[in-house]
Amino acid sequence: MDKIGWRAAWGLCLLHLSLAQIDLNVTCRYSGVFHVEKNGRYSISRTEAADLCAAFNCTLPTMAQMEEARSVGFETCRYGFIEGHVVIPRIHPNSICAANHTGVYILSSNTSQYDTYCFNASAPQGEDCTSITDLPNAFDGPITITIVNRDGTRYTKRGEYRTNPDDINANTTDYDFSSGSPSERSTPTDYTIFHTQLPTEYPTQGGDHPSVPSYPEDASVTRDQDSTSDSAGRHHTTHGSKADGHSSGSQGGGASTTSGPIRKPQIPEWLIILASLLALALILAVCIAVNSRRR
């Protein structure tokens, strides 16, 4: 009985440790700008985005810095925070990314949870894929934070970077995009197009038809779909019936209809910790009672 009790207690401790962790997937830097995804889904608030970039000794990029990064090859298929906006940088059109637009696609509804982009002022110009091996401005805390680089290398430290209690004790229902479900957050009914000099398509080896390029910078390129089209040719994303989004970029043509978001409940970390401690206390009490009876 003693062995079973201690094994159960140890198992609960390991379970708690596995739950109290944060995985941060980071990309290469493009003129200092890079993308950060937390725990494989949209789960970063605007306040946490600023804290997370600060932990990397970075800031949220401005629109000009994002445009500069895109001009040297940066594109993703994930919405993320920058200074004042939620955006997707696109170079090549894709019907499941940024409503098939190129440029920096802006989502006006920016009060929910997304990924984030960060800007490192000391990074070199162009592409820099050096592994990130530190979270220099994280402070003491109970969370195991793991940075996962594009090449698969990992850096782990114990600490915390969030300063907003609402982010630490989040008990919200967020949208999980890791399953590949096509959905987005808002319903823009108009958009602004800024034409760029970057190519929007390029031919195949035969030279007859444009091909959809591969996206080495974002492995999640097929995971998000965000556009619908009406008879007037206006592209929009969906968030209930509210019309509140727009975009900047050039239209690549073609669109597809989205389905509603999959809602996934998220258990707050403090509740997990409390349940683990109560279960551990119960197991220890049972072990003590059994030992007392034997004596």
Describe the structure.
This protein is α+β, with helices and mostly antiparallel strands and 295 residues long. It has one domain (2-294). Helices cover 23% and strands 23% of the residues. The chain is built from five helices and 17 strands. The strands form five sheets. Strands 10-9-1-3-7-4-5-6-16 form a nine-stranded mixed β-sheet. Strands 2-8 form a two-stranded antiparallel sheet. Helix 1 runs antiparallel to helix 5. The longest helix has 26 residues, at 269-294. The chain is elongated and about 75 Å long. The protein starts with a helix and ends with a helix. Residues 1-20 form the signal peptide. This is CD44 antigen. The chain crosses the membrane at residues 270-290. Keywords: Cell adhesion, Cell membrane, Cell projection, Disulfide bond, Glycoprotein, Membrane, Phosphoprotein, Proteoglycan, Receptor, Secreted, Signal, Transmembrane, Transmembrane helix. One of its GO terms (molecular function) is hyaluronic acid binding.
| Total beta-strand segments | 17
Shape: elongated
Main sheet summary: 9 strands, mixed
In N-to-C order, the SSE pattern is HEEEHHEEEEEEEHEEEEEEEH
User: In what range is the share of β-strand residues?
Assistant: 15-25%
Number of domains as seen in the coordinates: 1
Number of helical runs?
A: 5
Mean pLDDT: 73
Point out poorly predicted stretches. Answer: 14-18, 172-265
Helix content class: 10-25%
Structural class: alpha+beta
Domain Link: 32-120
GO molecular function: cytokine receptor activity; hyaluronic acid binding
Transmembrane segments: 270-290
InterPro entries: C-type_lectin-like/link_sf, CD44_antigen, CD44_antigen-like, CTDL_fold, Link_dom
